[in-house]
Amino acid sequence: MSNMVVQVREENIIDNDIIVFKELAIADLKFLIWNKKKKMLDIDDPDIMKLWKININEKEEYKLGYLKEDNIKQMFNGEFLKSHRTLESYFPTDQGLVAKNIHIIIIDVSFVAAGKRISTFCL
């Protein structure tokens, strides 16, 4: 399991366009993640990433090692992040986030395809 930080700003450059935070779609977030971490993720297409919203304390990160894609909802009240929705629809700016919590995980699709235990990356 790996942790990473990807900066999401008030204005983000996606494919030479400026996208403001309120309009930033999950698909755009995938691009920002992929653009910064493509070597680490070892994928060619950001659209294949599966992002989930969770909210657990970083001290409980070990629990992510027991994840399977079908139990994210039960274990962490997880919500699959749909590419067409905005990031703000999942994380409203008027509701603060706990800085020491993990809020988004990326499911390693190569592990899922091979039927192996899920590898996760935390944002």
Automatic annotation (TrEMBL):
<keyword id="KW-0964">Secreted</keyword>
<dbReference type="GO" id="GO:0016787">
    <property type="term" value="F:hydrolase activity"/>
</dbReference>
<keyword id="KW-0378">Hydrolase</keyword>
<feature type="domain" description="Crinkler effector protein N-terminal">
    <location>
        <begin position="25"/>
        <end position="106"/>
    </location>
</feature>
<dbReference type="GO" id="GO:0005576">
    <property type="term" value="C:extracellular region"/>
</dbReference>
<dbReference type="GO" id="GO:0043657">
    <property type="term" value="C:host cell"/>
</dbReference>
<protein>
    <submittedName>
        <fullName>P-loop containing nucleoside triphosphate hydrolase protein</fullName>
    </submittedName>
</protein>
<dbReference type="Pfam" id="PF20147">
    <property type="entry name" value="Crinkler"/>
</dbReference>
<dbReference type="InterPro" id="IPR045379">
    <property type="entry name" value="Crinkler_N"/>
</dbReference>
